[in-house]
Amino acid sequence: MMIGEQAQANARITLRNLIAARWVLIALVSASVLFAALAGDRLPVGLLPRSEHPIALVATVVVWTVLNLVSPLALARGRASEPLAGAHLLADALALTLLLALSGGPANPFTILYFLPITLATQVSPRWTWALAGVCVACFAGLFLLTPVEHEPEPAAPTTTAASEDPHAHHHMPADHAGGPAPTAAKASDRPHGEHFEGHQLGMWVAFGLVGVLITVFVHRTALALAHQRDELARLRQTTLEDRHLTALGTLAAGAAHELGTPLGTIKLLVDELPHLPAPESEGALDTIREQLARCKLIVSRMASPELRVSALGHARAQPWPLTKLVTELEGVDAGVPLRVEIDPDLESQSCGQPFSALSQVLRELLNNAADATRRAGEGDRAVVIRFDVRDAALIIDVIDRGVGMDGDELAAAFSPFHTTRPENQGMGLGLYLARAHLRQLGGTIEIDSELGRGTRVRVELPLVDRGAAA
């Protein structure tokens, strides 16, 4: 699943949970307003703070309900996005702040509901989670400004009686009545505050239980949605793996077809000329046909070799072989133009752990391309240079020709499949494409530097040891 698709899926999950949470909160607020109106003074003080602005409270609930009725349209039309989900959460935080400000402010025990938009924001992104947390903290602080705390008046000092003015009056009072009126006054002043605190505690317990249930439900729904996404991701991964194998098979078949084109073309040419050739030349033509058929058989047999499968090249474990073997292999290629091989003196003592057949196939393709470009430039007597160098445990091979070269557009499309600069029916345009695919699997790179009318230099750089196999 792509990153954009993952973000959209997270936004859809958040919006679904948000719509469900809103209905619960709207039902809670509506039930609280109705219950407070019907119960009146029979409710514990502080359990459900009464609002002095019921019309504004009802209007806020109505607007919130309308917003929740419109929200599913974004899901139905596939327009769920991270900014949209975040904007809805911000709107909910502001609506919750307004409802709390109209019904007790910071003394309302249901201020714990601020944790709901913060929890839902974790499904959108870390950035939105921090943003919602900051907004909710600021909104909670704003409740203190919107609804200032009312301080209870201090109790009045006890009134001095005539009896108390008599310094000897206390000697005539019973011990159990001494100072009696003072404790009675203190209990009377503390009673309303105690009832309010008990009701506030009860409201906090109810709010805590409600928020705990809601967060548990939404986190569980999120976990189920993420599990579904993991299953879908596993399915897509399996599909991608199957597609990769199919692509590798197609690449392998295209490479075989590309290689078979040259010997089959030679065979067709000789078969057409065979009836017109004298006996000695016919024998030589038949020998050439046999050689080309043997080459075709070799190409077909290599298709079954795991070493040459593009999908398995990165895991091939080849036995080390001397680099001079590759030089000898290329020197024996009849490219139709002179070939000059330049070797680094240190090359003779070096060995390579890469698959020999794969690397040889790549270099033969580059050599044939260079020879063809040289012939098309009318410079058939100029040699194609192959330069071998070893540097930092890597093999560097340069194939240089003085052929027709390529302009900027041709150079940009050089590695595209089925792109060729040769005349029609003289190439499939897969040589460089397959060469780069092979080299990538072997941990190597290929670069082309070309100038129209001046020639081309192709550089191959490859680690001497197959790093994937060594690991």
TrEMBL record:
Residues 255-466 form the Histidine kinase domain. GO terms for cellular component: plasma membrane. GO terms for molecular function: ATP binding; phosphorelay sensor kinase activity. Its EC number is 2.7.13.3. Residues 154-194 are annotated as: Disordered. The chain crosses the membrane at residues 20-43, 55-75, 95-116, 128-146, 202-227. It is a multi-pass membrane protein. InterPro entries: 2C_sensor_his_kinase, HATPase_C_sf, HATPase_dom, His_kinase_dom, HisK_dim/P_dom, HisK_dim/P_sf, Sig_transdc_His_kin-like_C. It catalyses: ATP + protein L-histidine = ADP + protein N-phospho-L-histidine. Pfam families: HATPase_c, HisKA. It comes from the Bacteria. It is found in: Cell membrane. Keywords: ATP-binding, Cell membrane, Kinase, Membrane, Nucleotide-binding, Phosphoprotein, Transferase, Transmembrane, Transmembrane helix. This is histidine kinase. It comes from Enhygromyxa salina. The lineage of its organism: Bacteria, Pseudomonadati, Myxococcota, Polyangia, Nannocystales.
